[in-house]
Structures are given as structure tokens and as C-alpha cells.
Amino acid sequence: MAAGSRSPTNRAGRSAPALRQLVGDAADGIRILYGGSVTGDNAATILACENVDGALVGGASLTAAKFVPIIEAAATL
Q1: Handedness of CA 50, 56, 60, 63 (dihedral sign)
Q2: Who has greater pLDDT, 76 or 9?
Q3: Which molecular-function annotations from GO does this UniProt entry contain (predicted)?
Q4: What pTM did the predictor assign?
Q5: Is there a contact between 18 and 28 (Cβ–Cβ < 8 Å)?
Q6: What are the residues facing 47 on neighbouring strands?
Q7: How many CA atoms does the CB half-sphere of 8 hold within 13 Å?
Q8: Are 40 and 53 in contact (CB under 8 A)?
């Protein structure tokens, strides 16, 4: 959800609960991954959003300099 979003935390915060409601009883067995622009600067905020279970990291995973801060942010949660 939210690929290329300029406001990832707003979109993730609104979309994830709506997706869970949409799938109803099966929601507990579904993991919702944020797939927008994840960076070291916004990873902790995105991953802390209620109902967001993880992130699908794209281009930022191609270099350690960009990926390590995302991993470090996730480790703090």
C-alpha cells in the first residue's frame, strides 16, 4: 500500500485498519506490509503504525548506507 506516497504515515495509518476491516474475520491471519517509500528517516514511524506489520523495502535495500538505518529503526520497536 502507498507506493510513492508523500505522506506515508498518514496513508499507512488510514489504510491498514481499513484493510483489516475489509477482510473481516480473516484479518488476524493476514500481515499487512507498507510498500511505499521507506527510508531510515521514516521507518520507525511507519512500522509503529497500528495494523502495519512490516515494510517491503525497495530501492533503499540496495545499499547498506540506506538499508542499515531501516534495520536499526525496526530493531527499536
Answers
A1: positive
A2: 76
A3: triose-phosphate isomerase activity
A4: 0.77
A5: no
A6: none
A7: 22
A8: no
